[in-house]
Amino acid sequence: MPPVDLRTWLFIALALVAAAFVWQLANAVRTTSQRRDDSAPDGRIAPSPWEIFVGVLTDFFDTLGIGSYATTTALFRLRKTVPDEQIPGTLNIGHLIPTFVQAFIYITVVKVDAVTLVLMIVAAVVGAAIGARTVARWPRRPIQIGMGVALLVAATLLILGKAKLLPVGGEALSLTDGRLAIGLAGNFVLGTLMPLGIGLYGPCMILVSLLGMNPSAAFPIMMGSCAFLMPVANIEFINRRRFRLPAALGLTLGGVPAVLVAALIVRQLDLEAVRWLVLAVVLYTATTLLMAAASTRGQDSTDRTTSDTRPVPSA
Fold first, then answer.
1. Which of 39, 67, 232, 234 fits 201 for a cystine, CB–CB 3.0-4.6 Å?
2. Which residues pair with 172 in a beta bridge?
3. Rounded CA gap, 283 and 111, in Å?
4. What pTM was computed for the model?
5. 114 Cβ neighbours under 8 A, 6+ residues apart
């Protein structure tokens, strides 16, 4: 029997991590249904049609490379679906299963070098483990500031891309030596920022292009990275109940079929108008987050006491 290659082992690991997260999410649903807590303070677990719609819309465009975190944050804040301090956890938990589906599809379709792919994923996972431990403990105001600044960075990247000031990439499907070291360091940093709610997709695509890789190589790298790092981040968010369960389930239920339609049926769209819309949404959301943080200056100590002394139930 021929030896199992690295890519096959990656699929096996991805399937195991996906199964572990489904069990973790089911356990969180069971725990919440038994007692009312911060993840469902009104006792509601089932997602609303709006929450499912947000999952459909954001994960459809996420699969085509637009990203989902900025748009989901904007839609949640539009209707005050999720408190600001619970948005990072809700994003990471709700978009995870759709991201698993994306990772399976794009790792299969795009033949990026398996060693490069695995090492880039590991770097992002290590970064996320550090970032989540910090973000899950933050009170509301630092999270508002952090997400606001992160969205301004994302908007800047979108503007630079529109102005053709960012690299378009080369043809390489692997990284070696110094370029590999830079790629690992970059993906590590992106992993630390992911739990805060800044999407990894856009920055990762820019990173691999700067390193001379084919932009298509970004899809399995960024989706594989997110599929493995998000469960690590979610341990902290779930244990500390720093998420809104109905909204997270809405993202999952709406997101999975949207990913399948986008990846297997639509595949490509003229996304120019969508990118302009996303840019406007990102700038608006960043502004409102920073204004909200400014209006609550002086409440940090109260927020921190409430957040840090809350008991941590077992998920």
1. 67
2. 213
3. 35
4. 0.78
5. 5, 6, 7, 10
Q: In terms of DSSP H, where are the helices of 47-86?
A: 49-63, 69-78
**Residue whose token pair is 């090492």:** 119
The answer to whether the CB of 88 falls within 8 A of the CB of 195 is yes
Question: Alpha helices of the chain — where are they, by DSSP H?
Answer: 6-34, 49-63, 69-78, 87-94, 96-109, 114-135, 140-162, 177-193, 201-210, 218-239, 245-261, 272-295, 300-308
As a dihedral over the C-alpha atoms of residue 74, residue 78, residue 83, residue 85, rounded to 10 degrees, the angle is 20
Looking at residue 166, its pLDDT comes to 64
Cβ atoms of 56 and 254 within 8 Å: the answer is yes
Give tens-digit pLDDT for 217-241: 888 998 999 899 888 878 888 888 8
CB atoms within 10 A of CB 156: 12
In this structure, are residues 94 and 258 in contact, taking their beta carbons and an 8 Å threshold? no
Instruction: For residue 239, report the phi and psi dihedrals to the nearest 5 degrees.
Output: -60, -35
> How far is the C-alpha of 107 from the C-alpha of 225, rounded, in Å?
11
Q: Region 255-273: what's the mean pLDDT? A: 80
Contacts of 306 (CB under 8 A, 6+ apart): 139
Helix axes 114-135, 218-239, angle to 10 degrees: 30
Closest CA to 186 of 120, 114, 117, 113: 120
